Structure formats: C-alpha cells, structure tokens
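Ops channel
N.P.: pipeline sanity check, posting one input/output pair.
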C-alpha cells in the first residue's frame, strides 16, 4: 500500500481513532502506519480501533492560516494528515476550516470519511453538523461518484446524533432520484418512519412518506399518511406511527 488505503471498508470506517492501541512513530511515514493498520484489519473480522500519534522531530507548529492553506492546496495525503493532526492537537473547532479539507480534490471518499469520523470523535458537540455536512457533500456528488449510499449513511449518523432534528430525514428524502431509485425508496421510507417517531413536528415527514407511497402505487399507505397530515381524528393531533 502506497500512501492510500482504499481497501478499508467504508461502512465500518476502520480507523476510528478510539484506542485500544497506541502506536507512536518517530519520523515514520504515515503510509507505513496505515499499512500496519490494514494488516491488523485482515487478522480481525471486527473493526480495529487505532489511534495514531505521529511525531516528526523536524515538524514545526503550523499556524491556523498555514493549516488552512495546506487544506486548500496540498495534494499529498501525508501533508493533509499532518495538518489535520496539528489542527486537532491545537483543539481548533472552526468547522469552516475543516470544510476546506473535505473539499480538497485529492482526497477520495474513504479518506474524507476517515477525517470526518475523527473530527466528530474529537469534537462530539459538533458531530451533528459534521455528519450533516458530509452527507450533503456526498449527496451533491453521488451522481458522479455513486456515493448515494454514503450520503444516506451520513444522514443516518446525523440523525443519530440529534434524533429530534428533522433536517437529516428531509434532506435524505430530497436526494431521491425516482428514475434510478437511488437511494432505495424502501430504505428512505424506513428512515422517515424512524424520524417521525423522534421529531416534535412530524408533519413534513408524513408528507414525504405519503409522496413515496404514492410513487410506489401503494394507495393504502398513501391514504394512511395523508390522514395523519389532516387535522382531526386520526390526523396530526392524534397519530400513531406505522
């Protein structure tokens, strides 16, 4: 493996940086650390949680502006990783700074997920915004890179971080492409049903559910959710989720 780690399973995000292992490299390229982590993964069917503390004796502390420029312009993964580790080490919580990293065109989706998971772990109070932003980014790009599964996965992560917020559910529904059935309509319906039991005002989710059932030709469920939207008995004021 040379500087990349495409074999990592995207869904498990193997490098979640939650230790039980602490590996300290003195001047060793991060690509070698990633290769070692990959070998660990092959030996274990479950996700290996590794925290990397990479120390370069000749590395000087970067300023915020230097980190920003590196996020914007660097094309080597090692350079981006070093800047990211410095930003985390300095406890910089400015999400706009990290967005420059996520938009760096040299990163593939696995690497974006790697950085996103680490950032959410380090700053859990920002996890909702991080996951929602990544989901929206993958949703914009999925037509080109076939990332619709990643988009929905990160909408689900955002919803798990703040179950009472309707945005992840509604934004996921807005991604639906009926001609291609992506993301799969049945999965979107299940996601919306979960949300309808969590958000304080479920009416917009019921509207989406009614629309999806209408697309599927399921007249019974379409009418069921239309009734939930309407006021009165069986309506929004006295609903029971299905």
């Amino acid at each position: 493996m040379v500087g990349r780690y495409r074999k990592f399973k995207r869904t498990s995000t193997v490098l979640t940086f939650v230790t039980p292992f602490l590996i300290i490299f003195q001047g060793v390229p991060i690509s070698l650390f990633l290769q070692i982590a990959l070998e660990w993964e092959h030996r274990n069917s479950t996700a290996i949680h590794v925290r990397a503390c990479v120390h370069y004796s000749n590395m000087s502390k970067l300023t915020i502006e230097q980190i920003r420029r590196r996020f914007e312009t660097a094309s080597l993964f090692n350079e981006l990783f070093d800047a990211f580790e410095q930003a985390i080490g300095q406890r910089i919580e400015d999400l706009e700074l990290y967005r420059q990293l996520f938009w760096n065109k040299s990163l593939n989706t696995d690497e974006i997920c790697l950085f996103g998971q680490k950032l959410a772990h380090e700053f859990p109070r920002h996890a909702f915004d991080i996951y929602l932003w990544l989901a929206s980014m993958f949703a914009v790009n999925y037509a080109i890179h076939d990332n619709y599964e990643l988009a929905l996965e990160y909408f689900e992560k955002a919803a798990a971080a703040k179950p009472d917020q309707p945005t992840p559910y509604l934004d996921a529904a807005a991604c639906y492409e009926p001609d291609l059935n992506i993301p799969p309509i049945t999965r979107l319906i299940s996601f919306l049903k979960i949300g309808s039991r969590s958000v304080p005002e479920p009416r917009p989710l019921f509207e989406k559910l009614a629309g999806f059932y209408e697309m599927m030709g399921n007249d019974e469920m379409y009418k069921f959710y239309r009734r939930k939207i309407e006021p009165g008995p069986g309506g929004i004021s006295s609903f029971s989720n299905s």
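N.P.: looks fine end to end. The first helix runs from residue 30 to 43.
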